[in-house]
Specification:
With 390 residues, the protein is of the alpha+beta class. The protein contains nine helices and 19 strands. It has a six-stranded mixed beta sheet with strand order 1-2-6-3-7-18, covered by helices on one side. The protein is elongated and about 85 Å long. Bound molecules: zinc ion (ZN).
Length: 390
């Protein structure tokens, strides 16, 4: 076991040192807690320019740019992290990064300050070698990704649109790999729609059902239909859409009252066969066909997006394969990310980052090797995008 405190600091790769500096900031959403300043101190001496936006809920958004004209490459990332939870369960404190057995441990190590450090180091090396490179290299960094996400990248995308920025290529550094580093590039994400259903009945005594109207009985067949329905067969890029009921509640905890109301919570992860509007229309029509006296309340948490694989996806895939020896698969599984916002102003948007095995968990970590290789992959990708004649 190597102890970071006794290891010679000079021996550590720059990407690990930068990741440590970012990870030392206790930046639980939406507080950036000094992480933007760490990036600023690293990149501004290399003639990057910086625009920072502070939003009313305490989010810090940063747009860090080198270059002026098209084409535009953007690295999208976040420096906020989820709460570390019970501190006593961590082997070392979550905001005191520690290297043990080749892994860097801290909250946010894999999700996603490690990727932010790798991208910043790749950017630095690229502009040092090619100070007059064509095109524009930019980082969009927010401290509101793990929360509602509305004050972060979503808001910055509106600002960029106002400025007339159009992105040619965008990589979001979310931890995308599952079984081994290099195995997955995400080229899209499913949409996510939350529903709350309230079924109305009439409360009464269980011995006198004729005087009551049981919402549990009325809803049962409808819920069976909802949960067993095949929504689609999936597409070339997506798994089939899926509806999951997550909560059912009715009654008062006693056996002799027919409840007056039933509440159901559910979530739908849907692919590009559906739009949110068509799903809502369809589910409400299913309830109407059963004459259910009910109300629906809807909350969208993400629209689906997919990037048709183009030049960047190819160049990134080749870089991943060359550097890791692993040919990455394109896939769209998993939760939502800020790529959904960036994809609205970008021709090609994918996610590539380290392993996702420990994200949001106690003792979150990232391999030191992964960080070093990730920097190489990002550097090779931007170098080829900007400098190869194709
Ligand atoms: Zn993340």
């Amino acid at each position: 076991m190597t102890d970071s405190k006794t290891a010679p600091q000079g021996a550590e790769p720059q990407v690990v040192a930068l990741a440590r500096a970012l990870l030392s900031c206790p930046s639980v959403t939406p507080d950036a807690a000094g992480a933007i300043e760490v990036l600023q101190d690293f990149l501004l001496p290399l003639h990057f320019s910086l625009q920072v936006e502070h939003t009313p809920n305490g989010t810090t958004n940063a747009w860090i740019v080198h270059g002026f004209d098209a084409p535009v490459f953007v690295f999208g990332g976040h420096v906020d992290v989820v709460s570390p939870g019970d501190l006593s369960k961590w082997t070392t404190p979550p905001f005191e990064p520690d290297v043990r057995d080749g892994k860097l441990y801290a909250r946010g190590a894999s999700d996603m300050k490690g990727s932010v450090a790798a991208a910043a180091c790749a950017f630095a090396r690229f502009v040092r070698e090619h100070p007059d490179h064509p095109g524009t290299l930019a980082m969009l960094i927010t401290s509101d990704e793990e929360g509602d996400g509305l004050e972060g990248t979503a808001r910055m995308v509106k600002t960029l649109r106002r400025w007339g920025v159009h992105i040619d290529w965008c990589i979001v550094g979310e931890p995308s790999c599952a079984a081994r580093f290099g195995d997955t590039i995400k080229n899209g994400r499913r949409g996510s729609l939350n529903g709350r259903l309230v079924v109305h009945g009439k409360q009464g005594h269980v011995a006198y059902p004729q005087l009551a109207d049981n919402p549990v009985h009325k809803a049962a067949a409808f819920l069976a239909e909802l949960s067993s329905r095949v929504w689609d067969e999936g597409t070339e890029h997506f798994l089939p859409s899926s509806l999951q009921i997550s909560n059912i509640h009715a009654g008062h905890g006693v056996v002799n009252i027919i409840p007056g109301e039933l509440e159901v919570l559910f979530n739908i992860r849907y692919n590009t066969c559906w739009t949110q509007e068509r799903l809502i229309e369809e589910i409400e029509a299913m309830a109407r066909r059963r004459d259910l006296s009910c109300e629906f309340f809807w909350k969208s948490s993400a629209q689906p997006f997919v990037t048709r694989p183009g030049r960047m996806t190819r160049v990134l895939s080749e870089a991943v394969e060359r550097v890791t020896g692993c040919r990455p698969q394109l896939n769209t599984a998993g939760g939502t990310s800020d790529a959904r916002f960036l994809s609205t102003i970008s021709d090609e948007t994918v996610e590539f980052g380290p392993m996702n095995a420990t994200i949001h968990s106690i003792n979150e970590c990232v391999g030191v090797d992964e960080l070093v290789l990730l920097e190489e992959i990002y550097l090779e990708t931007i170098t080829r995008l900007f400098l190869d004649e194709e």
